[in-house]
Amino acid sequence: MNSPADKRPVTLLTGASGGIVGALALILAQAGHRLVLSGLDQPGLEAVADETAAAGAETAMLAGDLRDRDFARSLVDLAVSRFGRLDHLVTGAGASRPVPMVEMDDDEWDRLVDLNLSAVFRISKAASRQMIAQGEGGAIVHISSIAHSNGGANLAYGSAKGGVATLTYGMAQQLGKHAIRVNAVAPGIIDTPMVRNGFAQQFNALVEGAAVRTPLGRLGRPEDVANVIAFLLSDGAAFVTGALIPITGGIEILSPISTIAKGT
Description:
Order of helices and strands: EHEHEHEHEHHEHHHEH
Low-confidence stretches: none
Strand order of the largest sheet: 3-2-1-4-5-6-7
Strand content: 5-15%
Largest sheet: 7 strands, parallel
Shape: globular
Number of helices: 10
CATH architecture: 3-Layer(aba) Sandwich
CATH topology: Rossmann fold
CATH class: Alpha Beta
Helix content: 40-55%
Number of domains: 1
Radius of gyration: 18 Å
């Protein structure tokens, strides 16, 4: 049972069935957070919940689809009913697949934009209202993508992630007076199930390409992104808001002429 004076942060994570947010859940559990986990893949979500519980974290979970317009409110209600408050939100739920624009139907565009952008707005609104009502501030971190600046392999996904960046800037301006910080990370090519499944036949080529197309010479790991998010939630980032932090291994700064000259 939680005492009224319990100040351990309560953090809501979407997309927590594995990948980046699954890794983040374990990091936060070890740091003493109380967690509300949400994801579409219930077996994956249960596995992450078991890991966080084993690490000593009080954990609540609810599987569901964030495209359901009532689901965001249900998640915030779960946090409040279980822990009495909500301090942090990380929006990690998302999906994509490589497909040319001319082959994408309108329904797929609508589904991907809804999940990757509109659902981020809905859960952010519900969480922000709760944080404002508490009057003690908070921190929100959105997971955007390097695709926000180059379109990516799916223009619905890339466009939505661009919208997430814009949402971050606007939320930071509007919520700052409530002591709520809002930041985003923009991962590059990270070794996650979404990347492995989306590029199953080309995955080895991704690994080889990363060796010459990034200054750090490798793909990212989920923990590479998760550790930055954990920092943004921490008191160490108390004066950081409205930031979009690339976590890419430097792929965007490497001189194109260098890679072309190497025959890649």
